[in-house]
Write a structure and sequence with these properties.
mainly alpha; about 80 residues; 2 helices
């Protein structure tokens, strides 16, 4: 005998496949958002440390450059 599926069985299988793919896409989006947040946080932390060092060394030009970079990041991605 041939193994034929009914229309209902095929639709259920198709729906389950779409659901699994949808869950995968949501997980990929979540992971991407999490990685972007980690990268952004580390960039901001590094900038803040460099700003502190510029202040300690009384390097006004470096301080101004770094604070502008920090402002741009805050404008682009929010605080």
């Amino acid at each position: 005998m041939e193994n034929k599926k009914s229309y209902t069985e095929m639709m259920k299988a198709s729906a389950m496949t779409r659901k699994r793919n949808g869950e995968k896409n949501v997980m990929e989006i979540y992971v991407d958002m999490l990685l972007n947040e980690i990268i952004l946080t580390s960039q901001k932390t590094k900038l803040l440390e460099d700003i502190d060092a510029a202040l300690d060394h009384r390097d006004e030009s470096l301080f101004l450059k770094l604070t502008e970079e920090l402002k741009e990041i805050n404008i682009r991605y929010g605080s």
